[in-house]
Amino acid sequence: MKIKMKKLIPTIVRHFFLLSVAFVSLVPFYIAIVNAFKHQEDIYANPMSIPFSNLTLDNLIRNFNAPNFNVPRAYFFTISLVLVTLFLVVVIASMLSYILSRNRKGFYRVAYMTLLAGMLIPIQVILIPIIQILKFLGLMLSAPGLVLLYIAWYMPFTTFVLTGYISTISPQLDESARMDGAGPITIFFRIIFPLMKPALSSVVIFVMVWTWNDFITPFVIFGSSKFYTVTTGIYRAIGQYTQKWDDVFAILFFAITPLAVMYIWLQKFFISGLTSGSIKN
Amino acid sequence: MSKKILLLVLCFIMILPMVFSQGAEDGADDAITLKWQVWITPNLSLEFYKEISSAFEAENPGVTVEIVEASATTSSSSADFIRNRLASGDVPDLWMNFQDVPAFADAGHLWAIPADDPDLQVVNNLLAQEYNGKLYSFASNAQPQGLMYYNKKLWAQSGLTEADIPYTWDDLKAVSAKIKAAGFTPIVTGGEWVPLILWDYFLGSELSKEYPNWWTLINSGEKKWNDPQVLEMVQYLDDLVKSGYFLEGALSIGYAQLEQAFLNEQGVMYPMGSWFTAAEAGAENDWDCGVFSMPTKDGKVNLTKSGGYGNGYVVYAESEHPELAFELMKKANLDPVYGAKSLQVDGLFSNITPPLTYPMSPLQEELLALVGSAEYSRPVLSHPLGEAPPMGVADYFQSNAEAILTQSYSSLEDLLQKIDDFVAEVK
Amino acid sequence: MGSVHTLPDFLETLKRIQYMKLNTHTNTKIQNLILFSPGFIIYVGLIVFSIILCFYYSFFDWDGIRKTMDFVGFTNYIRAFTNNEFRSSIVTTFYFAIFGTVVVNIAGIVLAVFLNQKSPLTYFYRAAFFFPQLISLVAIGFIFKGLLSYIGIVNTMLVNAGFAKIDFIGTPDNAPLTVLLISIWQTTGFATVLYLAGLQAIPNDLYDAAKVDGANAWVKFRYITFPWLAPSFTAVTVFLFTGYMKIFDIIFVMTGGGPAEKTQSVAVYIMKIGFNQFRISYASAVAIYMTILVMAIALILTGVLRKREELLIS
Question: In terms of CA atoms, which chain B residue is nearest residue C257?
Fold first, then answer.
């Protein structure tokens, strides 16, 4: 493989450009993470440096169990929340999408339109009344209430993606199964569902990231209770501090690192999941 | 298929702890559980509240006090927190740091406390805190607010003495000019909610002196914010900003940093409420701190303070044990030990006869003397002056102060008009 | 099957066959409903019903505390229409939406084009660009608050290097731009990844044909890449614009809408009137306005861009 001079310069320019952008994308996180291990004075002296001789775990230990933000508890709660929501959304939305995908007339068509319209609704319009509805159901200030709200909230987007995908699965499969005497439920669970992996991985990624990072919903629904997610937890914890950078960055370290590690590990999965579902527009 | 079942099982295991953790909060059925909503601040910690609740539990066997934590990071105000709870149906019995008595009393959510209760008779001017003929709380403490603390060391270094303590607006301008000439920052202030107090204090000392029932006049339409007299007061604040007497970049530092900045001698004067004295008492500053009241136009001392309908404690109307909640309210405020501690941790002064005392720092003694000698003492502008202000008006005080600090307004009349517009809108 | 030896038996069997057919048809319908209902009922019960309730509240005068409310008709809507603060919040929101969408689109396309080469580093770059998307805006808001505060890290470095401090967040002139830049920084990765996928869907023979004709990079981009990216462009633009119109988290954490309400988007304004001022009904009316606005823009944008897609792909 010969590298021609003509091609070398553009390549260098290209890499230089991309490297700078990558640098800009990652530097804030570098600063947050590096400074979580430094003493306050070192942070001020040179924010970008890593003083290997003077690193400390104090900040992390101190903030692991702050009164406002108990890291393990927040993680346990948020992970449970995300997993339960994911599971229920995947099952319920795929069932719904299957029906909507195979039945495009009359009532089901109207239902589909109603769902799509939901994608454009800003959450503010729902936050105030939802408190009354959850109270009516006896689910206010409870985790199941939040899960229920998330399922409802994610239904439009996930149905949109999944319905689009299912329509690319040949109805012939349905037909042959029906010939064998299978009903819709059997057809769905035995045949269609196993084929939905690419679209489902899209959905899983979106729902997981959105739920993990969601702030305003748990803030409003749980505002006056003991529950907090990782996101509302860091708001509670840092809200008081903003000067003690060693504490602030330590708290942020806990917020960022798990997701970062998971991302590095599953990077391909994340990005392919993101793109596979969304091209089918 | 088996993978699915595994996943199903896994998720049910996940749901269980969440669902069950709900039940654990209900507590035992045979004992009485009293829910106390507390307000956590840097001065008022959870441990402090727990001390009081433990003592109360010891005196009342069979009663468990469940502390419900609220703070500025969970809700914008105690009322907001309570409203969220009202909507969810899980309302604490005793609330504190609660400011919005009129709206909630009108809605029937507050329990009237017995004004003839013998323990309450020690409170000075007990019935002055009535709303519509009913008493919902009692003013067992006084919280001076419109104060200017000053760093005595830097004061002297700027060539000023005790005699230079300012009483009038012009006095303040003069000392600020001298301090600036000496190379120091005259007044430190900050962002977050702090600009609100700039409006409350700098204008309030003059405005509430002239019109002790300002909000009654505003609500009835007799007076407007966009008024030549009020404009003068705004111009006074504006002049101070234009002369560069305030800390640079104030709006991007928070309250905690601001306090630290003053303690680290980054400015000479610090407008803040009496709660700062508690922080100063606990801080290790190697300089002496003094205090004077916010200057007024003619120099007459109007020491503005927190107003309202009591000490911020109220009982929920639909509580199952209102009398018990009332007992807890009394314990936290009138008890010789815990009442005194409540005052000490937050830099408050006792408003009962005989007053509860606690070991005071030199600054606190100075402040106490100031309280005793002030000619007037009126509530700050964001609290009831006559009638109560509309809820949320403090937001406009704050954004107006921000606009002045950053000199980003079209006209000062415009800023005042905003408040008038808001009042008209919510009527 | 049953016996057919006697007439009654035969009729019985006939009935059973017909019943079975009906049964299967009904059975299908029932099964369809079973699959359909949970999702739809939850959605309607929580979301649709909430919107109806919000609409209902907006015609009354409720503060969220009183047990009763008075009917006031369209007062709240008229009030919002003439309210300066609401208007400013719409202007602010459009500021973020328009500049944000334009810049992120351009940046996304440029980066995707640069990235679209088969090189091992591509994975690294792509991962790096996308990373900010994964972190919650609350965490990002605090990180940048720490970096850009007047006494924060960047200013410390500036001072150490001999420059003057810059007030990124505390002045009404700088704050909106700062927030906009941070949100652009966070969102560009999303657009890049989507455009990259769109690019990889473009058939290579087009490029080969162009090379044979001696086309340079710019020509290739203008006549092949850009038109073929039209579907991605539609999706990304609509997604970005509607997302920006709802911008909340980052503003709430970094500036709270200030200073002097200069960064107050409509979403932040609604939170303020609803939760600080306790004006639930008024907040509901503003929320309905916001919903209509977002929907209208989404429909218009989608319509216009879809037409463009058709024109270009032909």
Answer: B399
